[in-house]
Amino acid sequence: MLGFLIAILSGALMSIQGVFNTEVTKQSSIWTANAFVQLTALLVCLGAWLFTDRSSFMNVLKADPKYMLLGGAIGAVITYTVILSIDKLGPAKSALFIVIAQIIVSYIIELMGIWGVDKTPFSWRKAAGMLVAIAGIVLFKWD
């Protein structure tokens, strides 16, 4: 149950953050807004680390394979693309497409067992769920 609540909170915060970032971009530029977002994220993480964890930063460099360290760079691209999509589509339509893309890509990662994720067998039920979600986008977009 806790996992579901955390996921709901995460989705809500992503939507709010996307709107905030898009509005800041309108008053500055996309890369300065993105840099500010990443900088404030760094400061929050350092503060949380200071008060809760205090493990060695050098442990991060032990990550194997090394390409797993690209998460931060991917995060900057995510922020950039979320800002652009909200600007072009609005928050609701943007979120729908983002979530559907996440579901499809995540399921492919599970099916193929990519990047250390346990491989899972294909499920028609999950495939049908994705189709229902896509149908939901069509209904939502239909003005």
Short description:
With 143 residues, the chain is mostly helical. The chain is built from 5 helices and no strands.
Secondary-structure topology with pairs:
Elements: H1 2-27, H2 30-53, H3 71-89, H4 91-112, H5 124-141
Helix pairs in contact: 1-2, 1-3, 2-3, 3-4, 4-5
What does this structure look like?
It is a single chain. The chain has 143 residues and is mostly helical. It has two domains: 1-88, no CATH class; 90-143. It contains five helices and no strands. α2 (30-53) crosses α3 and α3 runs antiparallel to α4. The protein is globular.
Mean pLDDT metric: 89
The number of distinct structural domains comes to 2
Main sheet: strands, sense, barrel? none
Please identify the structural class as seen in this structure: mainly alpha
* Strand segment tally: 0
Give helix % range. over 70%
- Gyration radius, rounded: 18 Å
3D shape: globular
Strand content: under 5%
Distance between the termini: 35 Å
What is the element string, with H for helices and E for strands?
Answer: HHHHH
Number of helices: 5
Low-confidence segments, ≥5 residues, pLDDT <50? none
